[in-house]
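Structure first, sequence second, as always.
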């Protein structure tokens, strides 16, 4: 707290002077903005520093004029013009063809940040203070009075709030008209527009599809979804569109990319079923009509990965598992899991390999790696969700490098990355948030397998050895990914947000398994006290992080909706951990209980926001929600007052 008080009493100008060089030393010239934000050494070269050039980052120096009150009239005028254009477009009668919408510049929003932008606009309720704070612990400071850029999500606390400090998230001050539960994308088809449920490729249907602006939907992917799924190169996609645009494999990819664009567009959302059907039909056409080795196609593989992502988000898990099987076997036939190993092929034996053409293009090689790791992440999610075994195999045996930092452009320069099985904490290479997602998923699978040891008496003998080994691995993973686990990264990078939430969810799951086993075997509760403390601490961090990223505008593109299914699991795990505090009587409540109840109310609202009331994750929390409702009624809390 003393450090917090000293930091809070320091002016932003003083902190800027101390940290301007990015290395903590005084210098005649400031470091670039990215190096200052990440607190790494910068050579201060112009126009781009050496580090940003190597990592293909948008380098820049802080010499831009900031907005002042004098700029408000011009900004208001621009907003009024855009609003008038939008109203005019909405008032037009809907016909069979929709005119191409006018280009509207996207306003910056804290929940959907373009990573290529250097200046991140501050929202009206977040002044740029220089206060540093650990949001992982309960605090009474309102979010509107703290700078989220300096808040530390990474600090591991081994205790949860006692009676001396209660969790005050200012939840009752949140404006909640936005808390309308989302509905399944397939339920948004307007009544006056309908399409057959199964549409086979035909000339008539091609003309119907061509009436819609595919390029706008493709642009939606590269402007927004790319930063969630960064494994498709825009330059390669555009080049193939002009040279190979009529091949079934590319058409499958084209419609799959358009499908991703539909998910963030209210105007085109009713076409999701159409693009989904077209993408699947062209993928199947590739398998039916292509020559035996013609299915070795990166476009087809990427189309399947996009389709899997849509099926997971649309709660079609059975179909997603079947599509996963096709994609997994295709990746094995193409040898993607061993693509960076010099494996000598035995031409004399029966060879089913459909190997991709050899290439020295670093961007294309990286695109293949990221596509494979995207499949690995989705398969791991479905496995944790359903309990099905992974067909790709153990990740530490893959002969493919981890994804490299940087955008997939012609200027991409890959960093030397290790195999996942050879990754060490010291030295640890600079990891991108996408690589962090791979590490998070590998850890989740390890903890999931560890939890199964507690299910059978025959495997419990090795449980505690595995437990303490995983405690060490969890700490190593947090240390490796510390640069992506701070509040600034979690707000600006959607992948970092998902990584942090799921790491905390995995940590809760891991410790709750230990607590449950202690209770089943009748051991003293003190044997599980450490796991209880760590589980509760992680649950509070999930609640605090969810509040940090609470959407305030652009409901169709906010970070919670776009990552909904992948955020629900850590939210539910946090609710299960916090619900332990509800077992006592409301009359005997203390500060710790108040903190847990406040966080549970926040997480309940978050779950309502990202999933329908009759969804799977709601069914997992029926008892918790009932207990919370009973607690509110007993204590006289009225949720309608929020």
């Amino acid at each position: 707290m003393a450090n917090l008080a000293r930091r809070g009493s320091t002016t932003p100008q003083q902190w800027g002077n101390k940290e301007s060089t990015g290395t903590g030393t005084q210098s005649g010239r400031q470091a670039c903005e990215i190096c200052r934000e990440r607190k790494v050494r910068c050579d201060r070269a112009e126009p781009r520093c050496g580090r940003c050039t190597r990592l293909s980052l948008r380098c820049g120096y802080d010499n831009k004029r900031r907005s002042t009150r004098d700029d408000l009239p011009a900004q208001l005028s621009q907003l009024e013009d855009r609003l008038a254009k939008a109203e005019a477009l909405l008032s037009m009668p809907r016909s069979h063809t929709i005119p191409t919408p006018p280009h509207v510049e996207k306003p910056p929003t804290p929940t959907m940040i373009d990573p290529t932008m250097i200046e991140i606009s501050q929202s009206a309720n977040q002044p740029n203070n220089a206060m540093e704070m650990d949001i992982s612990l309960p605090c009474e400071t309102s979010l509107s009075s703290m700078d989220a850029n300096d808040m530390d999500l990474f600090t591991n606390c081994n205790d949860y709030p006692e009676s001396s400090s209660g969790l005050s998230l200012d939840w009752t001050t949140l404006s909640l008209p936005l808390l309308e539960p989302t509905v399944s994308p397939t339920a948004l088809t307007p009544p006056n527009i309908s399409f057959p449920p199964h549409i086979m490729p035909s000339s008539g249907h091609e003309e119907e599809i061509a009436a819609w602006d595919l390029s706008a939907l493709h642009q939606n992917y590269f402007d927004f979804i790319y930063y969630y799924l960064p494994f498709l190169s825009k330059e390669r996609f555009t080049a193939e569109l002009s040279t190979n645009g009529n091949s079934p494999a590319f058409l499958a990819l084209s419609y799959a990319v358009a499908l991703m664009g539909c998910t963030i567009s209210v105007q085109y959302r009713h076409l999701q079923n159409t693009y989904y059907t077209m993408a699947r039909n062209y993928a199947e056409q590739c398998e039916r009509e292509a020559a035996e080795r013609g299915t070795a196609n990166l476009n087809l593989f990427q189309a399947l990965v996009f389709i899997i992502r849509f099926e997971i988000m649309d709660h079609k898990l059975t179909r997603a598992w079947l599509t996963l099987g096709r994609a997994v076997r295709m990746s094995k036939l193409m040898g993607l899991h061993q693509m960076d190993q010099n494996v000598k092929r035995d031409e004399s034996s029966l060879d089913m390999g459909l190997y991709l053409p050899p290439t020295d293009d670093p961007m294309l090689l990286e695109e293949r790696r990221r596509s494979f790791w995207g499949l690995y992440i989705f398969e791991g999610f479905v496995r944790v969700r359903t309990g099905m075994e992974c067909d790709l195999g153990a990740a530490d045996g893959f002969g493919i490098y981890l994804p490299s930092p940087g955008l997939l452009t012609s200027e991409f320069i890959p960093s030397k990355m290790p195999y996942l099985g050879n990754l060490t904490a010291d030295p640890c290479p600079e990891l991108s948030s996408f690589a962090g997602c791979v590490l998070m998923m590998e850890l989740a699978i390890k903890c999931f397998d560890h939890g199964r040891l507690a299910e059978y008496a025959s495997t419990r003998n090795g449980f505690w050895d595995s437990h303490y080994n995983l405690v060490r691995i969890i700490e190593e993973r947090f240390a490796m990914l510390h640069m992506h686990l701070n509040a600034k990264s979690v707000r600006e990078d959607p992948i970092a947000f998902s990584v942090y939430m799921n790491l905390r969810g995995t940590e809760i799951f891991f410790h709750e398994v230990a607590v449950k086993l202690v209770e089943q075997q009748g051991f003293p509760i003190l044997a599980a006290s450490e796991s209880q403390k760590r589980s509760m601490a992680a649950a509070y961090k999930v609640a605090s992080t969810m509040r940090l990223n609470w959407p305030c505008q652009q409901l169709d593109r906010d970070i919670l909706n776009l990552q909904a299914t992948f955020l629900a699991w850590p939210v539910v795990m946090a609710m299960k951990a916090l619900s332990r505090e509800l077992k006592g009587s409301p009359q005997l409540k203390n500060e710790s209980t108040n903190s847990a109840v406040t966080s549970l109310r926040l997480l309940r609202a978050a779950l309502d926001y990202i999933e329908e009331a009759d969804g799977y994750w709601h069914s997992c929390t029926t008892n918790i929600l009932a207990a919370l409702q009973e607690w509110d009624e007993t204590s006289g809390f009225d949720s309608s007052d929020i």
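Margin note: The chain is about 50% helix and 0% strand.
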